[in-house]
Design goal:
Structural class: alpha+beta
Shape: globular
CATH topology of the largest domain: NADH Oxidase
Strand content: 15-25%
Number of helices: 20
Number of strands: 15
Radius of gyration: 25 Å
Largest sheet: 5 strands, mixed
Distance between the termini: 64 Å
Length: 443
């Protein structure tokens, strides 16, 4: 039997290994490969970059030997995204999304042929749903694109490319090789601070002062994605018969859910992207005649008669009634059913509402026991929230709770009063602070 080191495959590999040494890919070659694969722009960063501090552990989980990342941009056609017909806009989203995944696949194939290990997480879907409603994505494309100089985050929380504006979708390729040089963040923000995204958002998720209401955006725009689908299924299960189901779900909603399941999930709005005039290729009509731009791009979306999905008694419900009385309000659940304390803590920054917090300033120490032991500090003040592991500083309120009991309370499967009586939840501090905490989130 031939020794492993004498096998022709091993001999060929060792010879190649001696010739190449540590693999370094030239930045110009990466750009050539990406553009040839169909990308409209490309940037590249080493994994050590400070801008990736929050993302690094997720990158290394996906690829433990990761050394660098390639960020790619694919441009979307603008007029379809601006269309009031959501089928037209969604077709553009899905076609471009598929193109991003195809481009990333081609880049990986080319790099593999050169001996570089590479991985391309999905542009958006499919996602890792085991931990839903916690983090479902492998890596976040936006901070990588910003670090790689492909744009900056606008007021609407979309990356704005200096040339293509926010009419882009992003992809990332992780590689195990060094890159000869990196691209750097751009030195200005293409966002014009025009606030048209604020004016167009049907649920008021974008605040002119900079705050963002993730819960309202998630409930409406992503109605036929993960959480909204869960809520729809629960409506089906809870209906006693066909007539009862039809009271809860209109024929149009049923048909739209079928369309999402058979073709691709429907975004209900994304109007913030549609009206954004930023970017060298985009800004012309806005500069030449702002009134005409408003009449042709912004007002058709504002004036559209449509159903807007909101959580009951939410900021979004109040906003629609006041700002868009011609739109139909439909109260729904957003399908967020927390199943772990880790998911609860991770969801807090995304579901926090500065408006609902209404001037609250307090530090909370949480201690969870039982099936999931965890300590955390949540600080709320000046319309901001900070969540950290462990107990830090002096708490205004301390809460100790059995993990499963607390999750059941969040899912409204049991009340907090009974849990307090059974000592499954213990509170030290003013109960008003706990009440104020609960009102500050759209969970």
């Amino acid at each position: 039997m031939i020794a492993l080191e004498e096998h022709p495959t091993v001999v060929a590999y060792r010879q190649k290994e001696r010739q190449t040494g540590m693999l370094v890919v030239h930045a110009d070659e990466i750009r050539r490969i990406a553009l040839a694969a169909g990308a409209d722009d490309v940037g590249y960063v080493r994994i050590e970059r400070a801008e990736l501090d929050d993302e690094r552990k997720h990158i290394l989980k996906a690829m433990p030997r990761a050394r660098a990342l390639i960020s790619i941009v694919s441009r979307m056609n603008r007029e379809p995204i601006r269309s009031t017909a959501r089928s037209v806009a969604n077709l553009e989203f899905h076609r471009t999304g598929d193109h991003v995944d195809d481009v990333a696949h081609r880049i990986v194939a080319e790099l593999e042929s050169r001996g570089v290990r590479a991985l391309n997480p999905a542009m958006g879907f499919p996602m890792e749903m085991d931990g839903f409603p916690g983090r479902g994505w492998v890596i976040s494309h936006k901070p990588i694109a910003v670090a790689a100089g492909l744009g900056r985050m606008g007021l609407h929380r979309n990356v704005i490319h200096p040339k293509f504006g926010n009419f882009i979708l992003l992809g990332t390729v992780i590689i195990d090789a060094e890159i000869s040089s990196e691209t750097q963040p751009i030195d200005y923000n293409p966002c014009l601070d025009c606030r048209l995204c604020v004016a167009a958002c049907p649920v008021g998720a974008i605040d002119a002062g900079g705050a963002f209401d993730f819960g309202s955006c998630y409930t409406h725009n992503y109605r036929e994605f993960m959480g909204g689908f869960s809520d729809w299924v629960e409506n089906v299960v809870a209906s006693g018969d066909v007539a009862d189901y039809r009271k809860k779900v209109s024929p149009g909603e049923t048909a739209s859910m079928w369309q999402s399941l058979s073709f691709g999930a429907n975004y209900k709005a994304a109007y913030c992207m549609a009206v954004c005039p930023a970017g060298e290729d985009v800004i012309g009509p806005f500069l030449h005649d702002r009134k005409q731009f408003l009449d042709e791009v912004v007002r058709p979306l504002q004036n559209k008669v449509e159903t807007v999905y909101v959580k009951p008694e939410s900021d979004a419900e109040e906003h629609v009634a006041k700002r868009f009385p011609h739109k139909k309000i439909k109260r729904v659940g957003n399908g967020i059913r927390l199943t772990s304390i880790a998911g609860f803590l991770e969801a807090l920054p995304r579901t926090f509402s500065a408006k609902r917090a209404n001037g609250l300033r307090a530090t909370y120490h949480f201690t969870f026991t039982g099936s999931e032991e965890r300590e955390a500090t949540v600080t709320i003040g000046d319309g901001l929230i900070d969540v950290r592991d462990g107990h830090e500083g002096t708490a205004d309120l301390q809460m100790t709770a059995d993990a499963q009991t607390w999750l059941a309370i969040l899912r409204k499967e049991q009340g907090i009063a009974g849990a307090l009586l059974r000592r499954k939840v213990k509170v030290k501090g003013s109960p008003k602070l706990l009440l104020a905490f609960g009102k500050s989130f759209a969970i």
